[in-house]
């Protein structure tokens, strides 16, 4: 009986090409186990080309940013790769609530979700991610201006994400209540705030004090003054605090 050695592959495509060539060259049934595939900026791949990805069944990381993959094709690929932990993509037409639910159902082991480039999202759409208990890294969408309703929904999401290690927030109103919820994320290592309106800026130190694993704290275009930042840098030298006005 023949035994096939199994290899773990990380494959990065550096220029536009077709998936037919990729799969034809690298895919061998029962021999190769692909864990990661990066097709970022492969604009020339058409729907037929993406269909060849359905031959893979062990993917855990798939980068489809800046490609023209169709939602239906993405679903078929995910159906064959139930161990998917990270999917990075930017659809021409943003998926709405029902489509997001289907996406989550196809990725029960999802650990990383990047939504920062999505448009026309509502806070209701984000609610569906409350059922993703394994999330380690979350990049929420950028809204055009601070939205209080979006901020209010964090009280449902954060208690579900106890494994959270990286959290990126854009254009929200961060209330004292949500600050308290963030301090309960004991595995948090990186917190990134972009254009966030802090209701009580001087209370942000509680995150530095109560998140024991925190390594990086970014406050980009937030309403925070230099005096507070300098004070925190002295009191918490183990945390890299980055700011930009």
How would you describe the overall organization of this protein?
It comes from Temnothorax curvispinosus. InterPro entries: LRR_dom_sf. This is F-box/LRR-repeat protein 15-like. One of its GO terms (cellular component) is SCF ubiquitin ligase complex. It is a single chain. The protein folds into two domains: 1-110; 112-244, Leucine-rich repeat, LRR (right-handed beta-alpha superhelix), CATH 3.80.10.10. Mean pLDDT is 79; it is low at 1-11 and 13-18. The protein is built from ten helices and twelve strands. The strands form two sheets. The protein has a ten-stranded parallel β-sheet, covered by helices on one side. The protein has a two-stranded parallel ribbon with strand order 8-10. It is elongated and about 55 Å long. The chain has helices at residues 19-26, 47-51, 71-80, 97-106, 123-126, 148-152, 154-157, 176-183, 205-210, 226-235; strands at residues 7-12, 32-38, 61-64, 86-89, 112-114, 137-139, 166-170, 173-174, 190-194, 197-198, 216-220, 240-244. Helix content is 29%, strand content 21%. It is α/β, with parallel strands linked by helices.
